[in-house]
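User: My instructor asked us to take a sequence, write out its structure as tokens, and then describe one feature of it. I'm not sure where to start. Here is the sequence I was given:
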Amino acid sequence: MKNLKALFYWTFLLLFVSPLLAQENDGGQISGNLETNANFFVRDSLIGAANTPQYDRQLYGADAWFNLSYSNWGFDFGLRFDLFNNSNLLNPTGSYTDEGIGRWYIHKTIQKLNISVGYLYDQVGSGIIFRAFEERPLLIDNALYGARLSYDILPDWKIKVFTGRQKQQFDVYGSVIKGLSVDGYLSGGEGANWAIAPGFGAVNRTLDDASMNSLVATINTYSAEDAFVPKYNAYAFSAFNTLTAGNFTWYVEGAYKSRDNLNDPFGEFNVGDTAILVGDRLFLASGSVFYSSVSYANKGLGITLEGKRTENFDFRTRPQEQLNRGLVNFLPPMARVNTYRLNARYNAATQTLGEQAFQADIRYNYKRK
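Assistant: Let's start with the prediction itself. The structure tokens for your sequence are:
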């Protein structure tokens, strides 16, 4: 921890002092931004604005993110300070207070090789087997704390490998995540109106001992009929492709996940001869996802058709996590993705254990007289 704090202090010093030193050769660039939210809470039980820490006693809450980035000597450095005071982002009915370094990273490109370390955001395909991303209005920050190497094997083909652990507020989960992907691009040549962008990915998650011990302790309370031997490792694979032809775009992706420890919040336990208990139930199963979308756009008209089939594809840092926490992947929702926080919270939820869904979106811009 002391070494980590020293790294933060030296990074801060580098970001602020280096621009002064770089004035002689005009080689450095620094930029930054600040995002902050302040909320005042007035209790009103008639409209349900009550019975939370903020409305009952705290009366005020704030969230802030301060980003700094600096580029010089062929390196890109980044640092972000996060602050949460009486925040209701993590839990709408609770209160969260903490502050610290929320992210840092270092990027370096050496000819065809790109090296990145720190808190990294990335994804494989559409994110079905892996997505490290941030969604601030919902306080989702699933950055991968680790290292990534990317190499351009051909002008339009790239291979990428990564390893690390997922961010958990100002800490990390114990499980290790590692993977690779290959992405390419092929076109019909000069004058052709079509192109494809194929790809392949593989991800492995290895449970830490503490999570496994907790898992075993829970399974030991099950009956012989419901008990199983949990697995440390889960493997996920996906193949994907984007076909563009004229005004049409077709994306398709298929994914498979090996047998993994899963949790069913509405699982059924056999208690005695006739009684059934409903609640969180761990089980072992493999999973799969098939997702496809077709889009058409021309002269103010846009049409998108989507379809998805999901079976036992809940992929997390550990099966004990629920809701938005500890998600290794991202399953595209069959609902309109909203920008604002209130609408985003009440979308139709993606069903990770079983779902067959379709969606159509049609937009038309008419000419105004």
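For the description part of your assignment, you could build on this observation: Residues 1-7, 20-25 have pLDDT under 50 and may be disordered. Try explaining in your own words what that tells you about the chain.
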